[in-house]
């Protein structure tokens, strides 16, 4: 028996196994497109909020950084990777001028599409105050996204409920009608599906912010090619 060839074959098999495990534990790519009146912070993480990952937010101030006039005029698009068991979190606050809403679309590399819809999202109203009123607000700055420790406190103590829809993104929503009138817009948000709902946030008189969350129905891609035992039982080899 040629032990050198045998040993080389074992190493090759282990290498292939390592590649397979690496690919199997890869996360799911998400492309999120969303906007809010007035501000949002996008996160993903676990159910109790103890492990949150910040993705991004919209403009700091009153005006748009892009083609539109206001901070809600042009949706932002974010791309990030989640695990199948992760939750999506959207933290939304307003400038306390009107009752506000937000709108979004989330697509995955597994060909799942999730829209803002009262049947698939839940929300809670914060215990902490609206970021807009924590410091003197002005046109260039309307509040920071709440920090991870604060959000963990909010999420772990939350009472979750189904949000209220303010209509869909087809031009008929009362929210959209007001937004369109304010900026003389002629169309719906074309990069978000018409079936997406404007989800209502906490009323301006409450002086708080709103946390929305949902979970994709994504199959766990971290599959074990063996029936038993699980990967975690094996010593690390690569």
How would you portray this structure in words?
With 238 residues, the protein is an alpha+beta fold. It has one domain (27-215). The chain has 3 helices and 11 strands, in the order αββββββββαβαββ. Strands 1, 4, 6, 7, 9 and 10 form a 6-stranded antiparallel sheet that branches. The protein has a 5-stranded antiparallel sheet with strand order 3-2-5-11-8, with helices on one face. A hairpin with a 6-residue loop joins strand 2 and strand 3 (52-57).
How many individual β-strands? Answer: 11
The percent of residues in helical segments reads: 10-25%
- Please identify the structural class as seen in this structure: alpha+beta
Q: How much is the average pLDDT?
A: 75
Q: Pick out the low-confidence regions.
A: 3-24, 220-238
Oligomer: single chain
| Strand/helix succession | HEEEEEEEEHEHEE
The coarse overall form would be globular
Report on the biggest sheet. Answer: 6 strands, antiparallel
Number of discrete helical segments: 3
The span between the termini is 27 Å
| Content of β-strand | 25-35%
Number of domains: 1
Radius of gyration: 22 Å
């Amino acid at each position: 028996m040629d032990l050198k060839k045998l040993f080389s074959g074992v190493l090759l098999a282990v290498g292939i196994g390592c590649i397979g495990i690496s690919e199997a534990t890869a996360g799911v790519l998400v492309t999120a497109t969303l906007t809010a009146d007035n501000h949002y912070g996008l996160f993903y993480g676990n159910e109790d909020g103890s492990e949150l990952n910040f993705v991004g937010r919209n403009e700091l101030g009153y005006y748009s950084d892009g083609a539109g006039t206001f901070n809600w005029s042009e949706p932002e698009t974010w791309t990030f990777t989640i695990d199948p068991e992760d939750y999506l979190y959207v933290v939304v606050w307003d400038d306390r001028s009107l009752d506000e809403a937000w709108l979004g679309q989330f697509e995955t590399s597994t060909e799942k599409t999730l829209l803002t819809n009262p049947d698939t999202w839940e929300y809670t109203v914060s215990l902490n105050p609206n970021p807009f009123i924590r410091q003197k607000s002005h046109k260039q700055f309307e509040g920071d996204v709440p920090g991870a420790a604060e959000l963990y406190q909010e999420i772990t103590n939350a009472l979750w409920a189904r949000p209220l829809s303010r209509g869909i993104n087809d031009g008929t929503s009362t929210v959209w009608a007001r937004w369109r009138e304010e900026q003389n817009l002629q169309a719906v948000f074309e990069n978000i599906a018409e079936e997406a709902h404007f989800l209502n946030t906490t009323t301006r008189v409450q002086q708080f912010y709103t946390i929305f969350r949902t979970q994709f129905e994504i199959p766990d891609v971290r599959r074990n090619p063996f029936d038993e035992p699980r990967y975690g039982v094996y010593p690390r080899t690569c």
